[in-house]
TrEMBL record:
Keywords: Oxidoreductase, Thiamine pyrophosphate
GO MF term set: oxidoreductase activity
Pfam family of the protein (one): Transket_pyr
Name of protein: Alpha-ketoacid dehydrogenase subunit beta
Length: 323
């Protein structure tokens, strides 16, 4: 076991998959000698060479098209969108092409593409860098959307994403990159995509979260425990497809649900969780479902983002309203 940050766990997963399968290739803006803007590919260019790790022009649409072409010719591309706020430049490749290729070609071809991209607030990035746009892709059939909340999950989920025969969007919250360390197995391992994780068990309320909001949910649960409230935390890990079996089982146990996301109230996947729980387990609910999310405005400039992004205090308040 090694004590790693999330960015180190991501680098290790990439390194191990490059070594395991010669068809794995990585490309994107500045991912070569520079090692990426967050150094996720640090050292990989020197180890594997420019045929496996390559820089691209500043063109997200070209990166997406290149990934589709290489996948159709037997490679396993790991493409990087330098910041997920640049999603719109590559939207046609993601939501108009790679997600439907298996169906279009009668299941005779696979597109084993992994799309890595950082996102998320709290680190004072410039405009259009921090936006939480996962909801747009979660509503796009044919592509899985994965968002880890910790180093160990990041390694196992990224490994599974690269080995998956269909497109996987792998989103990495920037605030999680180096904010804490945890023990991560040095061996290769996969964490099944589409499976949520019970971070901690509880009996009074279910808190569903993903990405950095899992950390805030843990803080909130610690505060609630001081008042005798037992919170169960469900980390979605994969936001499309959702693991509704794990979510509904928790709700049916606790009778109360708070869904937390960093994205605006009208965005993200919180409403999808609320809708599914309402259809499947409404008779198990003892109180109305609460949603903790950012306001329905564009992402603010850096000086205001700490007031805009929800956190543990808002989660505690939501739980207290329904306990």
């Amino acid at each position: 076991m090694a004590n790693l940050t999330m960015i180190q766990a991501i680098t290790e997963a990439l390194d191990q998959e490059l070594a395991r399968d010669e068809k794995v290739v990585i490309f994107g803006e500045d991912v070569g000698k520079n090692g990426g803007v967050f150094r996720a590919t640090k050292g990989l260019y020197d180890k594997y060479g420019e045929e496996r790790i390559s820089d691209t022009p500043l063109s997200e649409s070209a990166i997406g098209g290149m990934a589709i072409g290489m996948a159709l010719h037997g490679f396993r591309p790991v493409m990087e969108i330098q910041f997920f706020g640049f999603l719109f430049e590559v939207m046609d490749s993601l939501a108009g092409q790679m997600n439907r290729t298996r169906y279009r070609m009668g299941a005779t071809r696979n597109l084993p593409i992994t799309v890595r991209s950082p996102f998320g607030g709290g680190v004072h990035t410039p405009e259009m860098h921090a936006d939480s746009l996962e909801g747009l892709m979660a509503q796009t059939p044919g592509i899985k959307v994965v968002i880890p909340s910790n180093p160990s999950d990041a390694k196992g989920l990224l490994t599974a994403a690269i080995r998956d025969n269909d497109p996987v969007l792998f989103l990495e919250h920037m605030k999680l990159y180096r904010s804490f360390r945890e023990e991560v197995s040095e061996e290769q391992y996969e964490i099944e995509l589409g499976k949520a994780n019970i971070v901690q068990e509880g009996s009074d309320v279910t808190i569903v979260a993903y990405g950095y909001m899992v950390r805030e949910a843990i803080k909130a649960a610690d505060e609630l425990a001081k008042d005798g409230v037992s919170a169960e935390i469900v980390d979605l890990r994969t936001v499309s497809p959702l693991d509704m079996e794990t979510i509904t089982a928790s709700v049916e146990k606790t009778g109360r649900l708070v869904v937390v996301q960093e994205a605006q109230r009208q965005a993200g996947v919180a409403d999808k969780v609320v809708s599914e729980v309402s259809q499947r387990s409404i008779l198990s609910l003892e109180e109305p479902i609460k949603v903790v999310a950012a306001p329905d405005t564009v992402f603010p400039f850096g000086l205001a983002e700490n007031d805009w992004i929800p956190g543990a205090a808002e989660i505690v308040e939501a739980v207290n309203e329904i306990k």
